[in-house]
Amino acid sequence: MSTRSALTAIVWLALALSAIVWIMRISSAVALDRPFLGNTSGCEEEALFSVWKAANGYEVYNNPWLPPFSASYFGWLFYQVYGWWAKAGLAVSGLEDAWLPTFTRIFTLIGLLACIGVFYRLLQTGANRGATFPPSLLFGLAALVFINPLFHWWAFTTRADVWALAWELAALLAAFCYAKSGRARAVVLVGVFAFLAWSFRQTNISVLAGFGLWLLVNRRWKVLLPMVASMAVAFGVTMAVLGMNFIDSAFTANALSGDMRSSVAIANASSALTKDPLLTLALGAAFVLVFFAGKWWHNNASRLAFLVAATSVFLAAALAAKVGASSNYYLPPAALVPLFVLVALSRCEFPSFLNAGFIGAGAAGIGLASALVLSGASGNLRSPGDERLHEMRALRRELREPVFSTDRVVNLPWILGNGPESYVFGYAYQRMLAAKPEKFTGGTIADLLRGGRFSTLITLEDSASYVATAEELADFTSAGGTVREVRKREGGL
Q: How many CB atoms lie within 10 A of CB 434?
C-alpha cells in the first residue's frame, strides 16, 4: 500500500468513526412520531423563539429591557434566513410550530455541508501544490475538520455559528483568489462574504480582520482604505436601520451577560482542544512554524492564512473567557489553524512527509477522541430527553393563561408560551437587571409575579432559569402534581 493510500485510509477510518458518534448523537434528538422539544445546545430556546418570530412576521429585536425581556443576540440575517426556511418547511409539510426546531437544525446541517465544500476547495487551491494529495484524501480531510466531537452538537442546533463560518470560509477563498490574481472582483467578494458572516454572527470577523492585516502588511493601501470605509458604512447602515433594539440585544445584552474570567477561558480552551485533537496538533505545528521555520512568511498565501488563523485564535481566546461562553468560539480556529499549517507546509518546500504526518496524526487523534466518546469515557452520546416538556405541553388546556415557567424552554410558544409575548427571557436578564435597574421601566419579572401578571406559575427547580423568592410566590397556592405547579389565588393582586 502506498503512502497516499495508507493516509487516505486513516483519514476515512477516522471520519467514519466520528460520523458514527455524530449520527448516534443526532438520532437522540430526533423523533419521527412527535417533535423533539429539548435543546441541543445551551440557551437554544432564545434563538428558537427569535426564529419563530421571524417566521411569523413579528419584530425579532424587541426591547430587551421591557417584558417579555427576550433578547436576540445574533445577526439579523441569521434570524431572517432561518425564519424563512422554517416557515417554508412547516408550510410544505403541514406540521405544527413544535416541529420548527427540527427544521432549523436540519438547516444548520446544510450549513455544515457548505463548510465542507468550501474548505475542500480551499485545500485544493491553497494546500495541495503540485497535486500532492488525491481528491479522495482532500475531501475526507475537509469533512474530518468539521465532523468531529467539537462540531458534533453545534452542527445540529439552532445557532448562527456554522453558517457564519461557512461565509467566512467563502470570504477566505475569495481572499486567496485576490492574493493570486490581484483582481478587484475578488476583493468585492471578500467584502460581501465577510458582511454575510457578520450578519449571521457579529463575532465572525476573523477573515475580514485577517485579510485587512494582510493588506496592511503588504502595503496595499489602494485596496485597504476603500475596503475599511465600505465595510464601516455597511455595518453602520445596518445598525442604523435595525435601531436601538438591535444594538441593545446584540451588543449591550451580550456585553452584560457575564464576567470575563481566566478560569472560564482555560476551561473552554481545554474543552475545544480535547474534542478536536487536529486543532491541538495544528496549534503546536503553527508554533513551530512561526518560531523555528519562518520561510512561509515570504509566501503570499501562507502569510494570509497565518494572519487569518492568528486573528481567529485571538478572538476565540478572548470571547470564550466570558461566563456563559462555550467551546463553540473555537469553531473558526478549528478550521483556520489547520488550514494555515497545510498551506505553509505545501507552499514553502517543506518535506512532503511533514504534511502527510500532520494529516495522519490529526486524523488518528480525532479517531481516538471519537472512540473515547463511544466508550463512554468522554462526552455524551445522547441529548437529554424531552419527556417532561411533552408533559408540560399536555397540561396547556388545563392551565389558566397567561402562564410563566421558571424554565425558559417551557415558555416557548409551542409549549406553554403566549405567541410573541412568550416569556423566553434572555440569559443576560439577571445581569442586565443588576447593572442597569433603571432601564426596566416596564417592571421586572419579580414585579410581574407580585402584581398579578400571570394566572399560572410553574416552577421547575432542577432546570430553573429564574428562581422566584418567597415574596414573589406569596399570592400563589400549590395545585399539586408531579411537577410543582402553583396557581394564583382567587382574589389575589
A: 9
Burial class (CB in 10 A: 0-12, 13-18, 19+), 68: buried
| Closest by Cα among 161, 147, 52, 67 to 370 | 147
Q: How far apart are CA 84 and CA 278, in angstroms?
A: 35
Decide the pairing of beta strands 456-458 and 403-405.
parallel
Quick check: 484 pLDDT over 60? no
Number of Cβ within 10 Å of residue 160's Cβ equals 26
CA 487/CA 313 separation, integer angstroms: 50
Distance CA 126, CA 207 (A): 15
Residues 6+ apart with CB under 8 A from 479: 485, 486, 487
Residue 140 corresponds to which cell in the numbers above?
A: 475526507
C-alpha closest to that of 282 among 144, 180, 160, 177: 144
What pLDDT shows up at residue 482?
41
User: What's the grid cell of residue 479?
Assistant: 395545585
Give the mean model confidence (pLDDT) for residues 300-314. 97
| Helix 184-200 vs helix 221-247: crossing angle, to nearest 10 | 20
Q: Residue 352: its pLDDT value, please?
A: 76
Residue with cell 434563538: 47
pLDDT tens readout for residues 274-287: 999 999 999 999 99
Q: How far apart are CA 432 and CA 195, in angstroms?
A: 29
Confidence check: pLDDT of 348 > 70: yes
Q: Please tell me the distance from the alpha carbon of residue 187 to that of residue 199, in angstroms, as a whole number.
A: 18
CB count in 10 Å sphere of residue 124: 16
* Residue linked to cell 414573589: 472
Between 232 and 485, the more confident residue is 232
Query: CA 195 to CA 184: how far, in whole Å?
Result: 17
Mean pLDDT, all residues of the chain = 92
**CA dist list (Å): 249 to 39, 73, 93, 121:** 21, 6, 32, 36
Which positions ≥6 away from 132 have C-beta within 8 Å?
346, 352, 355
Q: Looking at the predicted structure, is the pLDDT value of residue 481 above 70?
A: no
Please report, for residues 206, 254, 265, 332, the alpha-carbon distance to residue 251 in angstroms, rounded to integers and kept in the order given. 18, 5, 20, 20
| Residue pair 141/11 in contact by the 8 Å Cβ criterion | yes
For the chain, the 3-state helix, strand and coil shares in percent, each to the nearest 5, are: 65, 5, 30
Q: What are the backbone dihedrals phi and psi of residue 121, each rounded to the nearest 5 degrees, phi first?
A: -65, -35
165 close to 204: Cβ distance less than 8 angstroms = yes
pLDDT at position 489 is: 58
pLDDT recorded at residue 387? 92
User: Residue 173's closest CA among 334, 308, 346, 347?
Assistant: 308
- Cβ pair 241, 77 in contact under 8 A: no
Residue 114 is predicted with a pLDDT of 98
